[in-house]
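User: These chains co-purify. Model them together.
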Amino acid sequence: AQKITQTQPGMFVQEKEAVTLDCTYDTSDQSYGLFWYKQPSSGEMIFLIYQGSYDEQNATEGRYSLNFQKARKSANLVISASQLGDSAMYFCAIPPLSGNTPLVFGKGTRLSVIA
Amino acid sequence: GAVVSQHPSRVICKSGTSVKIECRSLDFQATTMFWYRQFPKQSLMLMATSNEGSKATYEQGVEKDKFLINHASLTLSTLTVTSAHPEDSSFYICSARQGEYQPQHFGDGTRLSIL
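Assistant: Joint model of the two components:
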């Protein structure tokens, strides 16, 4: 079965610094993808970035980038130049093995950006 | 980008009332929608998978008669909390996707408070 592990329940980072949020996964799929979502205190889930397992380059979207290490089964999210608005819960997710089921989410990491 | 609209964003009502929550994919067709419940400081908990034109698939422990799901079209799914009680108070969030390896897009969620 698919599994996502996020080992950091909470993280603090100084404004303008970079921060890495950890995500490791377990899957028997040969081809898969990893997703990261942000959930601010208002509750909405915001899709941030996607990495395909066969993508040769690490995904980047603005200040977000993925440090994808396939051999280690890790897909860490890197946020550069942190802003106060980055304070939120961050969830890593992987698609299911069968098509008609939703993404499998980790337990999340709460990021707090300090001024 | 893909937009999912969820309405209402907040409901406060008396015990025994039934509450309907709507989830619409505004600019794409979603053959599958997902309903989640989220308790404070926890990850999303899948309640059910909703497929257009067929019965929803409920997760273990979720009462079908309590949480009625209807997916009448490719762009609309509804969750009705029947005869709601204070223990049903929670944050409910829907999600839709276009395909298996596409991101899930989320509604903004509904905060339900039963007095």
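Residues 40 and 110 of chain B are 13 Å apart (CA to CA).
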